[in-house]
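The aim of this short unit is practical: by the end, you should be able to scan a pair of folded records and say something sensible about each. We start with the first protein, listed as its amino acid sequence and then its structure tokens.
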Amino acid sequence: MTCAKEPIEQERLTTTQVAVKKLNIMYLSLLREVAQRDVKEAVVRFGVEQSVAERIASLDVEQVISQADCSILQFKMRAPIAMRQAFKQDVDEMRRVAAIASMISDLKPIS
């Protein structure tokens, strides 16, 4: 989980880059917090390798922010199995979109 580019200058950030940076900070901060409590839980919940969880757990806040200062997402969103299967089905595009939208509206927050 490294940023291939140099840190982005704050005054030149687009709206999308700001949103990506905020998402990266939130994701990495949460990963760090969970990994500091329990590395195995972080591996399962975030789908990262143990070495990545351990490395993120050892970062301080400034390092997390520096790691997040990138124009690409530092994580891959994982969809529920039913949603992934809907993409694979051979149905017309509108029915597929409707099915996925229905599944999204039915998602429950993780508690």
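Turning to the second protein, read its sequence before its tokens, just as you did above.
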Amino acid sequence: MRNGKWWTFWNLQQVISEKTGKFYGEPTISAAIRNLRKVQCIEDYDLHDSTIEKRRIDNSRGYEYRIVFSGHSRSLPEQETSVETHKSELFMKVARTLEGI
């Protein structure tokens, strides 16, 4: 999510499952996204000056989410390898958060 792109619960489920071998349902992922707004997660995951944005998917029952950093280039890393590194790091952190729920 750190790359500034929009993610659905289903996208996150798939990537987390591929990277960790564990499946988390939509309520659990929703709780993890809410936790990313809390001070402890902001500190733990270096999400300072960030906003979790939410938008409805057109003609669908679902939503998309993304992390946007104000005044920082972290939401759109310059190099593709940086995007992959940031995605992997954030997914692992979200997975660890999910394990604690």
